[in-house]
């Protein structure tokens, strides 16, 4: 038996998400991959978010082909370059899969991070690994060089069997200030329990861990 994929029907696997997206945003989620780099401008907060679909090549048969569609990214970056209202915004990219992980279901080609850094993005947010983490991606090695800080969400509402061993349900609360971002981590240790502060961030030898960390926006 030879299976032939109908590309038009294949794209409809995102229709349920599109319906959910439309209920929230009042706009349909585009089914064309090249259009799945979507900008959200919060003008009053001076924030620009870029949403990308890292699952555009995934299905129930191919679970480890996470990637960023470069046409979608290019189209979004072109929009940013052409719109002067975006020049001084704090730019944040968001997608689902991690660019680094111990497992196969990760983005294996992370070179697109260079394009985000050059375009002035400061942070990228992702999920999937069900554990709150942070790291730094440097494009320039100078002290004030271009860089991206990674903020990885924990798992907010996954089934118990999907939790990482020893890790509770978690979510991050992002608090923006003119010169810094504070990431506060919350947890729930019991399925029907209450949310509380999650003091997992170490501060140094002899110091107690805290439930938050800060990142300088300017540097």
Radius of gyration in whole Å, from Cα?
19 Å
Helix count from the secondary structure assignment: 4
Spell the H/E element sequence.
Answer: HHEEHEHEEEEEEE
Q: What fraction of residues sit in β-strands?
A: 25-35%
Give the CATH H-level superfamily. Answer: Metallo-dependent phosphatases
First and last CA, distance: 57 Å
**Named CATH architecture:** 4-Layer Sandwich
The name CATH uses for the topology is: Purple Acid Phosphatase, chain A, domain 2
How would you describe this structure in keywords?
219 residues, alpha/beta, Purple Acid Phosphatase, chain A, domain 2, six-stranded mixed β-sheet, four-stranded antiparallel β-sheet, 4 helices
Structure description:
The chain is an alpha/beta fold. It has one domain (about 35-215): Metallo-dependent phosphatases (Purple Acid Phosphatase, chain A, domain 2). It has four helices and ten strands. It has helices spanning about 5-10, 15-25, 70-80, 110-120; strands at about 35-40, 45-50, 90-95, 120-125, 135-140, 145-150, 170-175, 180-190, 195, 210-215. The strands form two sheets. It has a six-stranded mixed sheet with strand order 1-2-3-4-6-5, covered by helices on one side. A hairpin with a 4-residue loop joins strand 1 and strand 2 (about 45-50).
